[in-house]
Every structure is written in C-alpha cells, then in structure tokens.
C-alpha cells in the first residue's frame, strides 16, 4: 500500500493542493469574485466469492476535479477526471463561461469566511489495509464457507464480499482556506439463502469501518448471516391489526434518517417537510436527545470540516424531545435567514440517547407486537410524513419471539411515530452516520391477511 492515497496516481498531497490553488488563482484572474475547487483521488479493491468460486474481482482507481466560480451571484461549475494542467485550466474557463450565462441568485456564494476551519483536527480516518487480491479472495471464501457450513438447511448463497477503499480529498476556496484529509473504508459481508422451493428465505450480515483490525472476523460474519437466515424459515402471514413495532438498531437508523431528511435545509426552504417550522417544538418524547459529534476519532461519519470548508463542532439537534436545530449548508441557511450548521455534505455522527437496555429488554417491554427484520419499498413521503412499507420480521408474544412473519405492510405517520417512541435501546449500531439502538414504537398499522 502506498504511503499516501494520491501516491498510487503519482500525485503527492502537495501536488493535489497545488492543483486546487492554481485553479483558484486562475478563476480569480478570469474575473470570478469567489471560487472553490476540490480534487479527490481514491483506489479500491472488491472481491465476491459465490458457491466457493470467485465471482467478481474489481480494482477501482477514481479521480475527480471540480471547480465552482461565482461572478457576483451567478454560479458556474465544471468537473473533469483528467488532472492535467490543461484539463484543469479548461474546466476553470468552462465554469466561468457557464456563470456568465446563469441567472442571478442572491443566496449563491461561498460559506462565510469567518466560519472556515482554521485548525482542522486529525481524526484518525486513514487506516489502510494492505490487502492483496489473493488475501481478499481467501477472506471472502472463509466468510461464505462459514455461512454455508453452519447448517444443512443453508441451500444457496449470494456470496461473501470483501471491500477495501482508500482516498484523499483536497478542498480550497478564495477565502484562503485549503484543507485535506485522507480516509479509508473497509467492509465484509455475506448473503445466504435457506430452505427450498416456496419456503426459501434470504438474509445477510456485514461488518464495516475505517480500521480493518476492528472488523468482525470472516467466520463471525458468515455465521451471523446463517443464524439470521435460518430464523426466518417457516415465516407466515398474520391478520391485519394495530400493534407496537420494534425497529432493530440496523433499521432504526433508517427511521431516524427520515427525520433528518425532514429537517434538512432544502426540505425546509422548499416547504416540503412534515416538520416545517418545528424548531422549538416537541418532536420526540421528553427522554430523547440527539447530539451531533463530528470529531469522534475513526468514526465512519467523522470529518474535520464540511464540504464547504466550514469548521464542524459538537451540537445539539434534539434536547429532551424538542427540536433545537436544523441541518443546513450555507445556501439553505441563507434561504432561511439562518447560519450554516456545518452540514454541507451530510450529517456527522448523530448520537441518539438510549437507556432502554438490550433488544430483548425492548421485546419484553412490548409484550405483544412485531419485531421488524427487513423493510421493502420506498413508501415514505417526507412532505406529509405518511409511511407505508413492506416488511417481514417476528411476531412477539409474552415478550418472546413466537414465529417469523412475512408479507406484511406497516403504516403510520412519521410525526406520530417519532412522538410515539416508547424506548430506545443501548444496542447501538455504529456502522453508519446515525448511531442508535433499537427503537420501540407505541403502535403502527400492520396489514396482513
């Protein structure tokens, strides 16, 4: 593995920074009142083994340069995958030409200069994995084999997959900001099928992170995939009812993702959110708190600065159930008469309060209802909050799993669902930008027979 992500392209960090700075200088000489530029390079290796044979082996080499210029309040952007001096200079000329034709937008422009990250922290995001194709194949094979050999009822496989990626991004703008950071992303997964004929069921498991040494072992991933698949055998439909529902941690993250979508600046200024004008209002029960922690060392959503160069910092989104802040870039903030929250490019490690114990504790508290294991379809309307998705899972009786459930639809309204959270578990899933445990909802409509 190269000492630096750009080295595999023959590009040092200094060279990448020079590309950005030269583009900014060039934009200024062509009349741009403001400009920003970024360059990103990365490499990756992905292997999938299916039925103990190599199915795919892919090596990626990606690079991209993007420049955005502002002529007053007129904006133009151009990009290229060619990092030569000629191609970069041509991209700057194209961006300036485009800006000369675009309409004025009073909200367009860089984030305010005083918000730039003056001393970005080192967050330990670059943990390379010196993985050869042969070693990746061996790991993927071991992962799938652990699942296939776990039980004779495992009848097929969609494969064991290993992926590793490493890259660097350099961003600069005409405020004088120039920053960069390297990062890695590694994962291992296994997808299995159990049963035969119409009684076949499918499930998976995966591990991911920035540090390869913190991944679960291939055997653990394969065996967990097998356990999850086997427990779904014998699934049946249930009668339509209204009952409590539990979203396990890996699915609860998606539920809270809809909340985040509703408080994004774009949804707010477009008046296209079920949480319009909700800052200062109770959205969750009083026991729910949500904090953003962008500087957790090695976390998958940690960043030293956002995609506009704005310094990131800890902040509170939800305090004792009350919405305290939105998720804003500089553009959406200006549209709303507010200040950016440093979320250009996304959210950075949302920490959701727990205290409800393990998943088993939540099922005991629920007593009777549905534990969801898979969601299907995209029936979520952020404008109205209407929620309706296909689901499968497990029916709970007396706080214990009674039988697996298939072919049901769960429905409700997100405003009611979020306000009806009964408990949040301590079984936190740290594999995404939203760190939450399992969530018990008071009730949802479950459509079955």
Task: Write a short abstract of this structure.
The protein has nine helices and 17 strands. It is α+β, with helices and mostly antiparallel strands. Strands 3-2-1-4-5-6 form a six-stranded antiparallel beta sheet. A five-stranded mixed β-barrel has the order 7-12-13-14-17. Strands 10-9-8-11-16 form a five-stranded mixed beta sheet, covered by helices on one side.
Which tags fit this structure?
alpha+beta, 449 residues, PmbA/TldD fold, 6-stranded antiparallel beta sheet, globular, 5-stranded mixed β-barrel, 2 domains
Q: Could you characterize the architecture of this molecule?
A:
The chain is α+β, with helices and mostly antiparallel strands and 449 residues long. It has two domains: 226 residues, PmbA/TldD fold (2-Layer Sandwich), CATH 3.30.2290.10; 207 residues, no CATH class. Helices cover 22% and strands 35% of the residues. A six-stranded antiparallel sheet has the order 3-2-1-4-5-6. Strands 7-12-13-14-17 form a five-stranded mixed barrel. Strands 10-9-8-11-16 form a five-stranded mixed sheet, covered by helices on one side. Helix 1 runs parallel beside helix 2 and helix 3 packs parallel to helix 4. The radius of gyration is 24 Å and the shape is globular. The protein starts with 12 loop residues before the first helix and ends with a strand. The model has no long low-confidence stretch (mean pLDDT 95).
Averaged pLDDT, please?
A: 95
Computed structural class: alpha+beta
Count up the helices.
Answer: 9
Q: Compute the separation of the termini in Å.
A: 56 Å
CATH-scheme architecture of the largest domain = 2-Layer Sandwich
Rg value: 24 Å
Kindly identify the CATH topology of the largest domain.
PmbA/TldD fold
Share in β-strands: 35-45%
- Any idea how many domains? 2
